[in-house]
Amino acid sequence: MDSEATLERPTPGSWAALVALTAFLLASALSFWPYTVDDAFISLRYGQNLVGSGVLAWNPGEAVEGFSNPLWTLYGAGLLALGLPPVLGLKLGGLLAALLCVPATYGLARRVGLGGGPSLVAAAIVATNASMALWAVAGLETASFTLLLVLMAWRFEVERGDAQARPLSAGLFLLVWMSRPEAPAYALYVVVRRAMALRSEPLGRRDLTWVGAAMLGVGAFEVVGWWTYGGLLPATHAAKVGGGPPLLEALAAGRGARFLLYRFLFHQGWAFAALWVTAAACALIGRRRVPAVAWCMGFSGLFFVAYAFTDWMPRYRFMVPPLPFLAVGAAAGFGWMAAATRARARWAAPAVVLLLLGGSAWNQATVGYDRSHNIALAVEPRGAWMLEVPARVQAPWEPGRQELDAWAVLELTPEGETIACPDIGFIGALSGNPVWDIRGLVTPSAASFLNVPEGDPGRPAARAAMLDEMYAGQPALILLPTRPQGMAPVARRFLAALEADGRVAEGYERRDDLLPFRVAFVRRDLGDLDFDRAIRVRRALDRLPSYRTALGLERSAPYR
Predict the structure, then answer these.
(1) Which of 151, 182, 242, 406 has the fewest CB atoms within 10 Å of its CB?
(2) Is the Cβ–Cβ distance between 267 and 369 less than 8 Å?
(3) What is the pLDDT of residues 350-402, one digit of tens each?
(4) Rounded to an integer, what distance in angstroms lies between the CA atom of residue 90 and that of residue 265?
(5) What is the pLDDT of residues 153-189, one digit of tens each?
(6) Quick one: 119 and 261 in the same domain?
(7) Count of domains in the chain?
């Protein structure tokens, strides 16, 4: 689909538009600046142990792959090794990746045959998306993974059009593979795109070179993972997806994804929905050829959503990686609309697109979608957020409701005592305590129990094995959230397991007043332990040097 028009340099007007769009995404992301997802601290805890002991483990001595973002985890470890503020580094790294996604999406669209106008529309869809803005600063790998996908696809298209180009996309594919476990789904694009060119270009040495370079790196990476953790999939797969059922069974169980996709499309405002529906209608009515990179990469992302639909975080996290490719497909549809109306009403198509883009951006700023799942900043309508950007930028990053739990751990337990809880990230990264994960991300026995349905004959044995493992660590505290939505259903199942077992009543005192929205079980001998709380708190604050919330300053003041 390459053409001279497609490959020419962007005009000054296009550069100005890209700068404006990138600036808009920057401001939008900074309006979410304080939000930091708890899972980011899981990666940091692994990084802390890698730097401190040379072992990539959650609890030293335990070989469990409780993270699903190896490359991002190593990036966090690198920040720690260099003595840089790790949380700030994670947030800035994600922000930079998100900002680069805007011109990268434009470049990809031009490469696959879209003109300058439609390519700017694709970039605008990415820049005005609130999910992209939130996950740019949340501390996870979402934006960096998205950028690597776009760069890999862009470079692959370059290599398809230039027989002399080196297979650099194979290296980018390796980075994609190291970033997220769903990378194999996106590998479908490479296969399909190459198959489409077989008639004019049979398989040859270039293809063998590409496959060899990619598979050599992927093979080495998987061998190291197998050697270290004893498996190809992270422990998070069993905890979140259900233990690895057959693919068709998992997809059939993913019928809830249809509801989630419906919410993504129609619960973010009429203009947001109209933008996507209009683009799809234009592509179908005009029989416009949608570039393979758009439908293939978009399908791969939606395929993973259907497979892992239970792991949706605030603001539709898993819709972000396929977003640039879906945007390219939408822009192709709008391109047909512009071509069809140019002779009659030159202004009509751009006006419609600008109206839909502006309305979509406004919808995502003012329409809430899930107030029960996470902290208010991430899920409530932002309203006139542009006026609040300066205040948000100066606000410290917020670790969420887990902050209170972490301070209870610091003030009640010595560093070596085990804590049993879900939402393990901030507690583990700040306190340094061994943490037993009730959700099962780093404790396979918990995941195995939670995946056994009620009434299954194997459930009592799974419950006993899980609790035997937990009690072997003699946890000082067992913390179970009662609300809000999120971990509460898991906590209720775990609480029922504790009460059915009976051992918790023998060795623990139940405290419903210790923490808000928490059931706490305190080991009966915990009050007899003597330790220097001032040293304990100072060591914890040294682990996260950029931690400066109002609560943190208030609680740490007596120990300084």
Answers:
(1) 242
(2) yes
(3) 899 999 999 999 988 887 655 444 455 566 667 788 888 998 898 888 888 88
(4) 29
(5) 999 999 988 888 889 999 999 999 999 999 999 998 9
(6) yes
(7) 2
